[in-house]
Amino acid sequence: YPSGNLAIIVVRNKTQLICIVQEDKLNNAKIAAVFSSSGRSTCCYPNGAVRINMNIQGGQYLDQAGSRVRRWTWPNSSMSSGPHIPLRPIFISLNQHVGVRILSQDKIIVSFLAMGQQAKFNVGTKVQVSDSGLLPPPTQLGKEELLLLAFRVRILWLLDRLRGCLNFPSNKQRDKVKPPAYLITQTLKILQLCTPSDISDELRSSVRAVVNA
Predict the structure, then answer these.
(1) 10 Å Cβ neighbour count for 191?
(2) Is the overall model pTM greater than 0.85, yes or no?
């Protein structure tokens, strides 16, 4: 960045290349986006909420409350549930210097513009279909990703409770009111992500403690 802070870094993790976009801060800079050559990518809002999430099957665009605005599947996706949903090109700004263009699975462009100079990175990937016609299984989420998702859902639960208290301060029955369906769904999905046998009991317990607090 013009400030001298690191904006974009590309690193190798075993057989994968990972492109990381950071916010313009010297210390404790938050991650604005992560793109992996395995096909898993995430872009976030400035407040840390997930904005775009992609894998080898397709992707989805979320608003800041976590509700899905748009979803799509890649042409070579092996998903059998529901019709193929084509991608409509997406253009977003992560901040005033970094933008992302999603045109296809193998054409995802991260552009950096500052002081009259521009750099572009193609962080897209083309997953090859195996001889059996099946795509390779997606990689498991790491410890940090699972905990981040758990804390995000927990914050959304608390915000929903806070809205209930502000809107109906004298309603003694508000504790019995069910939360929005999308929060229940997201909680169940996170708990399902912790079911594989290679997830440690400690991590599984930590995620459950966060979402059930």
Answers:
(1) 15
(2) no
